[in-house]
Design brief:
This protein has about 350 residues and is α/β, with parallel strands linked by helices. It has 2 domains: about 1-140 and about 320-340, 3-Layer(aba) Sandwich (Rossmann fold), CATH 3.40.50; about 140-315, Rossmann fold (3-Layer(aba) Sandwich), CATH 3.40.50. About 50% of the residues lie in helices and about 15% in strands. α7 packs across α12 (about 285-295) and α10 (about 250-255) packs across α13 (about 300-315). The longest helix is centred in the last third of the chain and has 23 residues, at about 320-340.
Length: about 350
């Protein structure tokens, strides 16, 4: 989330001053002007309220925190306050709760989602708020991930949280047949948040231990190590079983030059377009079949990787996404001014 904020703010051409308010302890500020706030909810909100009153912004962008966004909007009526969500918003089957959530979301000038998929899910839960919901897909600093499409190791890579929603169990079940048929191929599974999911994940990775150093399990690896592996891998997978908000891992794999096998769930299709091998019926045998296809057809694998890398560098880089967000911000500020002027 912080990376997205920095990337979009740095690429923005809108002009005007930008200031980031964040909690103490956040160190990776980049070159943005930052004002830190004390820890502790009450004292933090009081400090934020005073800081915003002094700063008098035209637009306030609150990332992720829906209740905080409505609190800020109520205390800063002059500004257009946007709620920027990096995953789905809360809903409920209880009609009273749904009414309460709808009222909450209507108190901000707009809600921004990181994919059209997330926007559609929101409108399914809260029909009639089309004018209130917007989508700006997350960008990627693709140059940091650029790898040589032509020079790849015989390596299959996965990077994601060690949890069922990411399809870790399916991949672990799919790999043995592939590794048995192709002894020259290796695999690396980079499993984040291992400390939270180790009990579940260990039972699925344990059968892969028989392959020795042909299968590496990197637990909560740093981003730099993940990047180095993806830049070498010929094949990467995003076998998510849930609707991904966007699929930053897919963008990273494309930029790095790997051919991607994807479930296409949620925003993953927006991330990859036509440049991934999609597994519609997500099962371990079907993942095995997809990996076999790319291993046995190197020309297809190379064409897929080459097209995907070009697509990401054209579509998902910061410039176009920042311009899209700048236009939306300007639109919402203008609408706020018109409303304050009585619709004139």
């Amino acid at each position: 989330m912080e990376t997205v904020v920095r990337t979009l703010a740095t690429a923005s051409q809108r002009g005007g001053e930008v200031r980031v308010f964040c909690c103490e302890g956040a160190e990776a500020h980049g070159e943005l002007p930052v004002q830190t706030l004390p820890h502790g909810r009450k004292i933090r909100l009081e400090a934020l309220n005073l800081a915003l009153a002094a700063y008098r912004p035209d637009l306030i962008e609150v990332h992720q925190q829906a209740i905080q966004a409505t609190w800020i909007a109520a205390r800063n009526p002059r500004a257009a306050t946007i709620l920027y969500r990096h995953n789905a918003l809360k809903t409920s089957d209880n009609p009273i709760h749904r009414w309460r959530y709808r009222a909450r979301y209507q108190k901000v000038a707009g809600v921004v989602f990181v994919s059209e998929s997330e926007r559609r899910l929101f409108l399914k839960d809260f029909p009639g708020l089309d004018h209130h919901a917007h989508a700006v897909p997350n960008p990627i600093n693709a140059e940091l991930w650029r790898g040589d499409v032509e020079d790849r190791d015989k390596l299959i890579a996965f990077a994601g949280r060690a949890m069922p929603e990411k399809g870790v169990d399916l991949l672990c079940a799919a790999l043995p047949d592939v590794l048995d048929r192709h002894p020259e191929w290796h695999a690396v599974l980079m499993l984040n948040d291992w400390e939270y999911h180790d009990y579940w994940a260990q039972q699925h990775v344990a059968p892969l231990e028989r392959y020795g150093d042909r299968v590496q399990i990197l637990r909560s690896a740093p981003l730099g190590q993940v990047r180095d592996v993806i830049k070498r891998a010929a094949i990467a997978l995003t076998p998510s079983t849930w609707a991904e908000p966007l699929g930053l891992t897919a963008l990273e794999a494309h930029a790095a030059g790997a051919a991607l096998i994807s479930s296409g769930r949620g925003g993953l299709r927006e991330a990859s377009g036509s440049h991934a091998l999609y597994v519609e019926d997500l099962t371990a045998p079907n993942l095995t079949t997809a990996m076999e296809r790319l291993i046995n057809n190197p020309e297809e694998r190379l064409a897929l990787a080459r097209g995907a890398q070009a697509y990401v560098f054209e579509t998902h880089v910061p410039g176009p996404r920042a311009a899209q967000l700048d236009a939306l911000r300007a639109q919402l500020v203008h609408a706020k001014r018109v409303a304050q002027a009585g619709g004139r």
